[in-house]
Amino acid sequence: MPDETLTQRPMAPNPAEAEAQLKAQADAASEASDSKEFAPMPKPPEGFDPREEIMDRVVAAIKTCYDPEIPVDIWELGLIYRVDMDGQRNVEIDMTLTSPMCPVAGELPEQVRQAVLGVEDVNEVKIELVWEPPWHQGMMSEEARLQLDMF
């Protein structure tokens, strides 16, 4: 005699019931994700100015630029007189050259501008080539003097 226990297959719900079940599951998932609480963003330390971090990157970019005749970057040479940044992250740089007759007078300021434009979060860069005060070896950093054996 055959086994009297019948295996019953679950019946598929009709389309309206299936749609109602899917909507209920989606609503439950949405409510669960809405109820998650995230930790608040940490507050920056008091006195923190994000522009300082950007300025550090600007100086690092300037340090990638070299006077081709001197194996020291232009920052350490003392060729950069001023670096300012406004609230829109536009940078202004006053720089000079070792001499008004410098052969890279047309190229070096553009090289600096391109290097600083490559810094993330910087919008515009304006370079002003200035001659006052005239550059002299005393403007070099101690690091530059050591590199050039001029101490």
Descriptive account of the structure:
This protein is an alpha+beta fold. The chain contains 5 helices and 3 strands. The chain has a 3-stranded mixed β-sheet with strand order 1-2-3. The N and C termini lie far apart (110 Å).
Defining traits:
151 residues, alpha+beta, elongated, three-stranded mixed beta sheet
Brief synopsis:
With 151 residues, the chain is an alpha+beta fold.
The helix/strand series, from N terminus to C terminus, equals HHHEEHEH
Principal-axes geometry comes out as: elongated
Main sheet record: 3 strands, mixed
Strand order of the largest sheet: 1-2-3
Strand content: 5-15%
What is the strand and helix layout of this fold?
Elements: H1 15-34, H2 50-62, H3 74-77, E1 80-85, E2 91-95, H4 108-117, E3 125-129, H5 142-147
Parallel strand pairs: 2-3
Antiparallel strand pairs: 1-2
